[in-house]
Amino acid sequence: MFKLHTLASVLIAGSLISAPVLAQQGKTFAKVNGQPISQNVFDAFIAEQKAQGAPDNAELKAAVKEELVRREILSQEARKQGFDKKGEIQGQIELARQSVLIRAFLSDYVRKNAPSDAQLKAEYDLVKKTLGGTEYKSRHILVEKEEDAKAIIAKLDKGEKFATLAKQSLDPGSKERGGDLDWSSPNAYVPPFGEALTKLKKGEYTKTPVKSDFGYHIIQLDDTRPLTPPSFEEVKPQLQQRASQMQVEKLVRELREKAKVD
Fold this sequence. Notes:
There is one protein chain. The protein is α+β, with helices and mostly antiparallel strands and 262 residues long. The protein is built from 10 helices and 6 strands, in the order H-H-E-E-H-H-H-H-E-H-H-E-H-E-E-H. The strands form 2 sheets. It has a 4-stranded antiparallel beta sheet with strand order 4-3-6-5.
């Protein structure tokens, strides 16, 4: 027996909550108690299921028809009981209608303004340059006060282990690993941290506290290695997504600036 993808979840989430509004538009696909179901609604539901991997066959079409009939029966009953007159329900219907329109508009905008390979390659080269050619394996201890950082440095000077002293770090992500931050580019850190890191030699730690917005750091460099970034083709999908997101954000800003809001 064929089962529609997200049958119950789509019904509850209301992604097609505006279907009754669309029922009067376009060719009629079926009628329930004299109320038409638009061919547009049927086609939209079929497309949604196909996008989720459903095979385009007679079984799918029959299942979608039955689902739309059930939805129409339920929506008719809801209207009989006056739910369509409730303010909060009208608000939800309007939000769903807006979501459909916005999704269609932005999908079309992104498709028509897709970045070229040359633009993506330029972004890739910029990221590569920003990352640099070396990765650093480091540790750090983060404390709130400069005097506390200086006291830790004094203990390190006397031979106490960095990993042991790291247990008092304010960084919960690294304190239980002896302060280990694993491999990373210096540009992945806030500027004061990254700059201090690149000045260290293997095995050295900072002799003075490094101040950042998070507090005071003591940094130790464990090792370095050449940075081998992924190829352009490997990261091209992520670059495309990022470029599209930036285009949409720019569009929204421009439209917002032009809009008159009372």
